[in-house]
Each structure stands twice: as C-alpha cells, then as structure tokens.
Amino acid sequence: MNAVASKADECNNLALRKASRYLGATYDKALAPLGLRATQFSILQQLSVHEEMTISGLADVIAMDRTTMASNLKPLAREGLVTIETAAADRRARSVMITPEGLARMKAALPYWEGVQAEFEEKFGAEPAARMRTLLENVLGTGFDPWAE
Fold first, then answer.
1. In this predicted structure, what is the pLDDT of residue 146?
2. Res 3: pLDDT
3. Is 69 exposed, middle or buried (0-12, 13-18, 19+ CB in 10 A)?
4. What pTM was estimated for this model as a whole?
5. Which of 128, 127, 79, 131 lies closest to 106 in space, CA to CA?
6. Torsional class of 94: left (φ above 0), alpha (ψ -120 to 50), beta (otherwise)
7. What is the pLDDT, as a whole number, of residue 47?
8. Three-state DSSP state, 2
9. What is the rounded distance in angstroms from the CA atom of residue 52 to the CA atom of residue 43?
10. Shortest CA distance to 40 belongs to which of 13, 16, 64?
11. What is the DSSP code string of 78-147?
12. Is 44 exposed, middle or buried (0-12, 13-18, 19+ CB in 10 A)?
C-alpha cells in the first residue's frame, strides 16, 4: 500500500461520512412509508420537544448550517408539518413550530425509528452504540466553527 492510500484509509471525514451514509440510508428506508427522511424526522422530533425555535437555533441543535436547515424546512412547511413565521422576540429571525399534523406524523414514525434503533443496537451492541454517540457528540466540542462567516 502506498503512502497516499494509507492516508486515505486514515481520513476521519471519510470514515464518518461512510458510516453516516450507511446508517442514514437505513433510517431513511425505515421512515419512507411515512413520507419522511431521517433528517426531517430529527427536525420534527426536536420541534416536538421545543415548542418553538428559531431556524438558527434549530440548526445549532442539529449541527447544520442555517441555509441547509431552511432548505430542509421547506418541504415540511409545504406538507403542513411545520409553520415558519417571523419571531416575536426578534423580527429579523424566523420561528419554526411543529403543527398538530407534524406531531402526528412524528408520533406515527416513532415506532419505525425505534425499530431501526433497536436493530442497530442489537447488531452493533448497546454499549458500543452509547459510546459511539458520546464520541460523536464530543466531536462537536473540538473547537471547529464550520459555519462561521
């Protein structure tokens, strides 16, 4: 193996993206019967916990740039699963709220999501899965600021 191939095999980003695409596709497939993708489910799940969030706040919680979050919200708004309005506290910001239809769709999708969670933990191991989530959460604290202007 040459030095370039060796370095490619050590790429943290590639390893993370491969695993992310693999697991993300699994969640997407499970949620497809309800017309949701994994990212949309995560957005609805967060909004079900926080009654109202700004687009920027929601993007921060999900670790996504604001522009991508706004793009992800558009189909949810078109389907009536979320509403997007001018924020009362700051007229420059936009607030996002889950609608009753969005909450119902998220609750209907929950068993599908739970099924993938359980199957992954069965195959990967509950303890390694918990460690993986902790390690991945720790990545967010490394000091990078990928969406800074």
1. 83
2. 61
3. buried
4. 0.88
5. 79
6. beta
7. 96
8. coil
9. 12
10. 64
11. HTTSEEEEE-SS-TTSEEEEE-HHHHHHHHHHHHHHHHHHHHHHHHH-HHHHHHHHHHHHHHTTSS--TT
12. buried
- Starting at the earlier edge strand, list the strands of the sheet with 52-54: 52-54, 94-98, 82-86
What averages of pLDDT result for each successive group of 10 residues across the chain (149 residues)?
69 92 96 96 96 90 93 97 86 90 97 97 96 92 81
d(CA 124, CA 72): 29
Q: What is the DSSP letter of 37?
A: -
- Is residue 84 a contact partner of residue 94, using CB atoms and an 8 Å limit? yes
Number of C-beta neighbours around residue 98 at 10 A? 25
pLDDT reported for residue 1: 56
- For Cα atoms 115, 118, 124, give the angle at the middle one, nearest 5 degrees: 135
* Separation CA 82–CA 47 (nearest Å): 9
Query: Residue holding tokens 């604290």?
Result: 141
Residue for token pair 């068993």? 111
